[in-house]
Amino acid sequence: MTALGKLFSAADILVVDDNPVNVELLLDLLEDEGYRTVEGMTDPLQVEARVQTKRPDLILLDIRMPSLNGLQLLQLLNNNYAENTPAVIVLTAQIDEATRHQALELGAQDFLTKPFNHIEVLQRIHNTLQLQRLLSERAEKAQLLESLVAERTHELSVLSRQDPQTSLPNRAVILETIGQLRSESKDLLTFFVALEGLDEMGRLHGYDVMDQVLCRLSAQVQELADVPLGLLGVWSSDKWVVLCESPVSEAQAEQIAQRLLRAFQTPLAMQQLSLHVAVRIGVSGSSVERSPEQMVRMAAVALPAETNCWQGYDQALENSLWRKNQLSQALYGAVENNELHLLYQPKVDVQTGAVRGAEALLRWESPVFGRVSPAEFIPIVEANRHIVEIGKWVIQQAVATLLSWRAQQAVDEHFTVAVNVASAQLMQADFSQWLIEVVQQSGLPAHALELEVTESDLMENMQLAMLQLQRLSAAGFRIAIDDFGTGYSSLAYLKVLPVAVLKIDRAFISEMHVNAQDRRLTRTVIDMARHFQFTTVAEGVEEPEQFKLLQEMGCDLIQGFLFAPPLHEAMLLQLVAQGFAASPAFIAQGL
């Protein structure tokens, strides 16, 4: 028996042929080869019941049979079992091309011609079983990853809705609750509570004591019987939000605020200590034109300067709101006024330390507002649809810059620049054609430009996004899935989208050196990506321990502050020339 035959000797093979002689011949051949689970049938009407009772790994199926021919039987199996239909090799004497094509369309994997050549029969059976085994292993890995992603996603979902120290609802839940109460037309007072002196308490008495104090304060507030408490939540570590279903009036706000102040000021006896927490409370009332976030922000702006006091919202909050509006207006002329520029964060080869590419990141220097943080202006850009115009500018700048680098021979022909493509861009029906024309006219090879899209952006309109990305991939562009694993956590789109790169989200990288679940998930993503021949990029790498783990897992590229922040061109090209093989991180790994 051959080594390949031994590998599949336990395979369940069903021979279906109305000629008993052919059935007997094939059964003898398979048994002589060492197959232990073989069965023959001359009545095709019995096959469906056999598959339902025990699904074979492979069916050797004759085409021309009475009562139910092979093509009809294939169609029946496909209708009943879809993707679970067993593998089929068709037994033929001489069939016409149309019949052969129909058999292939119905899922037949191969053909065996009568009279049978024994060596050919065994080899084709082995080949088909080998293919089925590889497909099964791929499905098992995909199922494992789906399971890990689902489990981790559930954990992240729970954690993302609560504060880790107190288990109180976090800001997402706070905003949801405000929205729900407002939708029910309930009057609402929002109290923004700033807890003072927590860091000093932690340094003096230990951070475990500080955490216990927070939990005790949480219990005291929730036990207040004379406060119409709707929700107590944590906005940040030392900023809490109290929602009260109450008529909006200064008298009600003062009554509740004073009660909260007394509750927070009550001394806490803990570990033979008497601990005090000072607070400041800002208040805002519900209003038709205010969103949940505005209500919280208005209450936060109302925080008084002195501790153990409260203050209601006044017109001063408008200054903060006006800034957002003014930034939005200023962005309209940012491109024409040359206020925007790009920085580039290098992508480092995990094995060699070479800089293989860079991500282009947008920055804004306003003549009025100065250097504006991307965290402040990018959401405005996306919300006001500036992203379509500015996104085109980013791509044109990145293309021109990369052409210049290549002309200077500062980078090699394999160096890539990645640009982020937002949902609004993908939803432009002519986006792919525009991009293809821009790159073709520039003379830059399409493969040098990498397009980063997020899972959530893909899901906004999967059909249109898929069409755009397939066109771009066919033109030679590399497609990267950004923030992989934190969006819809589904692998389904990997089957249909022309993905070349998976960027593992920093949410899994940031704690992978201390969180076993994050390590398992990251390893599984890398293994899966390798199986599909995807390039893997780990984002947000900041610690040497993270780099070591990613190197051991076989990640291809890393990006993060461990090696470099976003840089101007000159500094980036200097690092491209030098590489990071001599950096402390690589030297520490002995690379």
TrEMBL record:
Keywords carried by this UniProt record: Phosphoprotein
Location of 4-aspartylphosphate modifications: D62
BP-aspect Gene Ontology terms: phosphorelay signal transduction system
Keyword Phosphoprotein among UniProt keywords: yes
Molecular functions per Gene Ontology: cyclic-guanylate-specific phosphodiesterase activity
Record bears the keyword Phosphoprotein: yes
Organism: Denitrificimonas caeni
Domain GGDEF: 186-321
Domain (EAL): residue spans on this chain: 324-580
Name this polypeptide is given: EAL domain-containing protein
Domain Response regulatory: 12-129
CDD domains in the record: EAL (cd01948)
Pfam families assigned: EAL, GGDEF, Response_reg
InterPro entries named among the record's database cross-references: CheY-like_superfamily (IPR011006), Cyclic-di-GMP_PDE-like (IPR050706), EAL_dom (IPR001633), EAL_sf (IPR035919), GGDEF_dom (IPR000160), Nucleotide_cyclase (IPR029787), Rev_trsase/Diguanyl_cyclase (IPR043128), Sig_transdc_resp-reg_receiver (IPR001789)
